[in-house]
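Researcher: Please translate sequence to structure tokens.
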Amino acid sequence: ETADGGIIVGGFSYSGISGDKTEMNMGTVDFWIIKVDAFGAIEWQNTIGGDAADQCYFIQQTPDLGYICGGWSKSDVSYDKTVPTFGGRDCWLLKLDPSGDIEWQKAYGGSEDDYLFAFDNTADGGYVLGCFTASGATGNKTESNYGNMDYWIIKIDSLGNIEWQNALEGYGDDRLHGIQQTADGGYIVGGTTDSPMGGDKSEDVFGEEDYWVVKLDASGNIEWDNNIGGVSEDEQFSIIQTIDGGYFLGGFSTSPVSGDKTEPAWGAQDYWAVKLSAAGEIEWQNNIGGASGDRLEYVLQDPAGYYFLGGSSLSENDGDKEMVSYGLWDFWAIQLNESGTIDWQLSIGGDGDDVVRGINQTRDGGVVIGGQSSSGISGNKTVPNQGGYDFYLVKLGCTATGFFEDADGDGYGNPDRPSLNCNGLPGFVADNTDCDDTNMDIHPGMPELENGLDDDCNNLVD
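Model: Translation complete:
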């Protein structure tokens, strides 16, 4: 969500001028950046690329009301691309102004393929990039490569200059998909691994592929790591720090009960949500799915502590899935409570493929889901398809409820301290009948005592 209440969308496009697209492609596939207003209407767009393939995987507004976007590029210097490639594919980062025009760009990579998939703003005004790489110490990569693919963390300043970097290395394939700066100034990173113990990896893989979570300090040094999985394929796509200082992981699993996995799979692939403590130990987990394929792509936590899961489902209404399937893949949105139990779920889609690629919570308590769609007007999709796969945005609203601050923790709220929210906030309650929110022994549930106070808030003093 942008400061004006709109949405900024970043992805990639093979299309020329047609449908909603107003600019030609430069290469085979280009970044496509779209700014929409609070109601989803396009305000501006920009196609950005070179003479080959360029794919955007994230975009975020910056404090100066511009934007930072990134992904990977195979293009050399041509068209919009002003920095040369180091090898096959490079990480490509662009800073845009508030109108979507390029201010600066940087490439990061070595002699082989390097992919940028994850990003976060840092407290010092810079950025941290989460990549995976097949390159050795070439280009602007300063560390050797252990396996086929390694995690590659790059800390940059506000202008994209490298401050430090660290390759987290196993002996197999390690593909990073999520990174976030943590409250202590360090970083949490997560992705998928098939590496045995060795290199930077302190534990063996359980099955074909597992989740691999690594906690770094502020300088990028490893504090701890945890390999999490069962005997089959488990792929992690999203990781966040939680309100309580722990971590929440999202991905999919094909594993039965085995290794770290305590619940069986319903179908070919299931959502697998895992809650970790601040030290990286599993606190709880939930395997969620139907009889077919279900892929969890993104997770977030709202201020009240509820978890929102965004992914895609091929399953009918069986297993945990209570919603019908409209076509092939549908968006499947789920809210969990703080203990990981399903509160509600929703399927969104039409008669084709509808696949989630991102989620974002809005300031009004709603959620925007973005992805790609080949569906026409059908199911609960109300907008037509322009051709092939289109960008597809859905805003989920909520009915806001009044909550009231409970500063003294007695379960009774202060009527003068209200807040409108979908799920409530920590320290707020639905009741608004406390007459003294600084004293937990004064509220409507207390007996009246002869002490010169209005103990039960009935406006009488004994």
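Researcher: Any highlights?
Model: The longest strand covers residues 54-61.
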